[in-house]
Specification:
This protein is 17% helix and 39% strand. The chain is α+β, with helices and mostly antiparallel strands. The longest helix is centred in the middle third of the chain and has 16 residues. The chain is globular.
Length: 661
């Protein structure tokens, strides 16, 4: 790090001697460029505090105003006077506890820190992949933020992928509308990330990081080229509608009540020359708060046999399948026999409204004892409010049982009290060495860096929706890696063994099927990042489809290295990932059949054995049709990939000397 600090006297002398700033009405202008010099963030402090973003001199975001309005009438941003400037160049390597994309992450950026009169300031960073900025306060004491102004005035009316929301009561599981910025009507809002694309030019993803003790950010239309930030105000009165939904009836005239000194959430812009850059990005994680767990070696990613999606449907057994001891013992034994680390006990083991009321059909202590004997971790599902009502009692019981983690569901909000709930649960679970999987959740904003026991979360329209709707489609599946996954791991819950095309598909809640081919589902285990990765279908289906299952259970859930081979948002994606000495490649397409030739230069050198699962010759008419093949290739030799409509391709590659054909 190379800090450069300009004291107040020197800064004022520079300002007064600069022709551009000699007039008191002229703004103070500060810029910070990415290490490669291509991306520039410019901040102007004048009548308004504005920022603008350019790539290679081309404006992507034109001058856009930002401000905080405090309840006491103080405005942070307008007419701000900069009294000192700090700069630094950072070049470091970070080692995440849970490596989602890489075992080591290169953290290289240029930093700019502006101090304003009154103890407030603005911090900014420019990376080779984007920029971020945030407000900070150095003062102590309570702060009530009435509102935040965050404008994003996008140049030249780009196309957006816009996950439209209807209210602040949301699971953040919306589909992406494609429309130009000027077509977004005033007040129409979306959760983040939002993606902007210029014809023949770059793409820009907008999201946030290090969200703490503050409400989540949404973007809304204005009917112009600008989007504007929208925030759920602090709840004043809430109503519990049922065992899982707590609705806000009225709100306070402010969005946050907090205290200084503190920093506020980062406003993040990921700039992508090519679509693959969106998958490569680690900005959200790098901008987040550092590790808060003293000794995190107990955190163990892995795969999960999941019960709810398949409705506990088992065949060929001598007991009645359902929410009972025998069924869960069967799930545990299936997991143990196949090297699967965990089993989720989803809804039904207790009264969802009262975690103290256990299902008499399940011997919980006996089940945990059986799981421990087989080396399987059990993860009970809970409703967030029921957990919060008896938090310490419930977590202590889970710890005493020997639970591996908890799946917390149905928060459906990201106002400040709910954001604080996530942090509280992460910390309380970590003290008891429990993993956390948040469902009914807002997008990731970096909590997992501070508390890596938060191994995954939903906030994605995933496979569960096929139980009652005709989504997600293959097109949606190949959109998610570029937008939702940019924010962090996503618990999409792949693994359907019943597969259908558009004509055959119908939603069946208790016997669900997926849209697209069998290998489309298998490829998700490589393409999608989730350190806790579900096997959503029934053990009976996996036992019947043993060849596919044997491959799936070998796929790691964390990675030492990631290479993006081919990528186009909403069209196709091909990703190579390395764990140890083995490489895995996953390829997915939308409803368009495709032929690809994949460059295997990432292998380095030598002869490699390749186990391939590909769409069968008749996968277009029967999406369950697939072929398994064993090949040998030289590193650098292209791999031919043929994809059926809604298809996939997946492979494991090891040096031929380690696994000869």
């Amino acid at each position: 790090m190379k800090p450069i600090t300009l004291p107040v006297a020197i800064l004022l002398a520079l300002i007064s001697s600069s022709p551009a700033l000699s007039d008191a009405q002229e703004p103070q202008i500060f810029g910070v460029k990415s290490p490669d010099g291509r991306i520039e963030l410019t901040v102007r402090a004048g009548a308004d505090l504005t920022y603008q973003l350019a790539l290679d001199g081309r404006e992507l975001v034109v001058a856009s105003a930002i401000a905080l309005q405090l309840a006491d009438g103080t405005a942070i941003g307008p007419a701000a006077t900069v009294v000192s400037v700090d700069r630094a160049d950072v070049d470091d390597w970070l080692k995440p506890v849970v490596p989602e994309k890489q075992a080591r992450i290169h953290d290289r950026y240029a930093a700019l820190s502006l101090a304003f009169e009154g103890g407030w300031g603005l911090e900014a960073r420019a990376y080779d992949e984007g920029v971020a900025f945030r407000f900070r306060t150095d003062g102590s004491g309570p702060i009530v933020v009435a509102s935040e102004s965050f404008a994003v005035d996008l140049a030249q009316d780009p196309t957006l992928w816009f996950p439209t929301e209807e209210s602040f009561l949301t699971h953040s599981e919306r589909l992406y509308e494609q429309l130009s910025v000027s077509q977004v009507e005033s007040g129409k809002m979306a959760h983040l990330p939002v993606l902007a694309a210029w014809t023949g030019g770059p793409k820009l993803a907008i999201t946030e990081s290090d969200l703490r003790a503050y409400p989540g950010l949404y973007l809304a239309g204005t009917g112009t080229s600008a989007l504007t930030g929208v925030f759920p105000a602090y709840p004043a009165e809430v109503e519990q509608l049922n065992d899982r939904t707590v609705r806000v009836l009225s709100r306070e005239p402010f969005i946050a009540k907090t205290a200084g000194p503190r920093t506020f959430p980062w406003r993040v812009f990921v700039v992508a020359d090519e679509d693959a850059d969106l998958i490569r990005s680690t900005m959200v994680w790098r901008l987040a708060s550092p590790l808060r767990i003293d000794e995190p070696s107990w955190i163990r990613p892995g795969q999960v046999a999941w019960d709810w999606w398949n409705a506990l449907n088992l065949t060929g057994v001598e007991f009645e399948a359902g929410v009972n001891t025998a069924t869960y013992q069967y799930f545990i034994d299936f997991a143990a026999d196949h090297g699967i680390e965990y089993v989720i006990l989803d809804e039904g083991w207790s009264d969802p409204a009262d975690l103290g009321k256990l299902n008499p059909d399940i011997d919980m202590e006996g089940l945990f004892a059986h799981a421990a004997e087989r080396g399987i971790g059990l993860i009970p599902w809970v409703v967030w409010k029921s957990l919060d009502d008896r938090l310490d009692e419930s977590l202590d019981r889970f710890e005493a049982w020997g639970a591996a983690g908890i799946k917390v569901d149905f928060m459906q909000r990201d106002d400040q009290p709910m954001v604080e709930y996530y942090w509280r649960i992460a910390e309380a679970a970590a003290r008891r060495r429990l993993l956390v999987d948040f469902h009914g959740a807002y997008k990731p904003t970096g909590l997992r860096r501070a508390y890596p026991n938060v191994v995954t979360r939903e906030g994605v329209r995933g496979l569960e929706h096929v139980k009652w709707s005709s989504y997600p489609t293959p097109e949606h599946d190949v959109t998610l890696p570029f937008i939702r996954m940019l924010a962090g791991p996503m618990d999409y819950t792949p693994g359907a063994m019943l597969n259908a095309n558009e004509e055959q598909f119908k939603p069946v809640f208790d016997r669900p099927m997926s849209l697209g081919t069998r290998v489309h589902q298998m490829a998700m285990y490589v393409v999608y990042e989730s350190p806790l990765q579900m096997l959503a279908d029934s053990p009976s289906h996996y036992l019947r489809e043993s060849e596919c299952t044997a491959f799936i259970v070998e796929v790691p859930t964390v990675w030492d290295e990631t290479q993006v081979l081919e990528a186009s948002v909403g069209d196709y994606v091909a990703v190579a990932r390395r764990s140890g000495n083995a490489w895995y490649v996953g390829v997915m397409t939308d409803w368009e059949p495709r032929d690809m030739s994949l460059d295997t230069g990432f292998l380095g050198d030598g002869l490699w054995s390749v186990e391939v699962f590909r769409d069968g010759r008749n996968a277009a008419r029967n999406p369950e049709d697939y072929r398994r093949e064993l090949l040998e290739i030289e590193a650098g030799e292209p791999l031919a990939v043929n994809l059926a409509p809604g298809g996939g391709w997946v492979a494991r590659l090891v040096r031929a000397a380690e696994r000869p054909l």
